[in-house]
Amino acid sequence: MKGIAQVVVLLPGIMIALVSGCTRHDKGYVEDTDPEMAAAIAKAQETLPQFWQAYEQRSHGESNFTLIVKITDKGRIEHFFTTDFEHRDGKTIVTITNRPKIVASVKAGDRIEVPPADITDWFYMRNGKYVGLRSMPPRFKHMPAEQVKVFKREMVDP
Question: Where in the chain are the domains?
Answer without folding.
Answer: 2-154
